[in-house]
Amino acid sequence: MTSYFDVFNLPVQFDIDTDKLSVHYRELQRTIHPDKYVNASDRDRRLAIEKATQINDAFETLKNPISRSQYLLQLMGFPVDETDTSMDAIFLMQQLELREQLAELKHQAAPLMAMASFLAQIEQALTDLTHQLSQQFSQQDWPSAKKTTRQMQFFKKLREEALRLEEELLF
User: Fold this and answer.
1) CB atoms near residue 48 (< 10 Å)
2) 72, 14 in Cβ contact below 8 A?
3) 51 vs 58: CA distance, rounded Å
4) What is the per-residue pLDDT across 37-93, written as a single tens digit (0 to 9) for each?
5) How many Å separate Cα 73 from the centre of its chain?
6) What is the extent of the structural domain holding 98?
7) Which tens digits make up the pLDDT trace of 138-155?
8) Helix axes 142-170, 89-105, angle to 10 degrees
9) Do 32 and 102 reside in the same domain of the chain?
10) Which secondary-structure segment (H or E) carries 97?
11) Secondary structure of residue 57 in the 3-state scheme
12) Which helix (H) or strand (E) is 46 found in, with range?
């Protein structure tokens, strides 16, 4: 089976050129788009749809650092178990503190300003973890990359919760 990296002629590594990924994606979309196969046989139409689906799945996976990391770890034999929520105590305490901060935001005098600051903190944490992940993958430190990926999942979920709360505050 062709890897998602092969679909876009990219090296099998965490650090990829996302601009190149986007360019290849658009090129492949133009050549494989199912609308080009309207007058083709049922088999050819089905194959075009399957190929377009594979290209879309590959693009969605590789454009995001978390899903790219999960996919790469899977390829390397270190799958990330989505249901495994065990983390070290220090990280869990940090998450509890951040969740408490999030819960208290709506009661502050300027909740939207506080939310902007909170979201910036989360984005910085995700950026820092992405840099860590890059180093871990380049050193082939799969267990650490797996741990960092799981930490990123926690921060991603926290960001989603914060964005939902921000939306509530706006309306």
Assistant:
1) 19
2) yes
3) 10
4) 888 888 888 888 899 999 999 999 999 999 999 999 999 999 998 777 778 899 999
5) 13
6) 89-170
7) 999 999 999 999 999 999
8) 10
9) no
10) helix 89-105
11) helix
12) helix 42-63
For the chain, helix (H) and strand (E) counts, in that order, are 7, 0
Token pair for residue 123? 């984005």
Number of domains present in the structure of the chain: 2
Q: Which residue's structure tokens are 């996919």?
A: 71
Say what the alpha-carbon torsion angle 86, 89, 91, 92 is, to the nearest 10 degrees. 70
**Residue 8 main-chain phi, psi, to 5 deg:** -110, 15
Q: What distance in Å separates the CA atoms of residue 17 and residue 113, rounded to the nearest whole number?
A: 34
Give the amino acid at 112: L
Structure tokens at 158: 């926290």
Spatial CB neighbours of 146, under 8 Å, sequence gap ≥ 6? 73, 78, 80
For residue 100, what are its two tokens? 């408490």
- Provide the Cα torsion 98, 104, 106, 109; round to 10°: -120
Both structure tokens of 92:
């869990």
Q: Give yes or no: residues 58 and 113 share one domain.
A: no
**What is the distance between the alpha carbons of residues 49 and 33, in angstroms, rounded to a whole number?**
8
Assess if residue 9 is contained within a domain.
yes
Put simply, whether the predicted model's pTM sits higher than 0.70 gets the answer yes
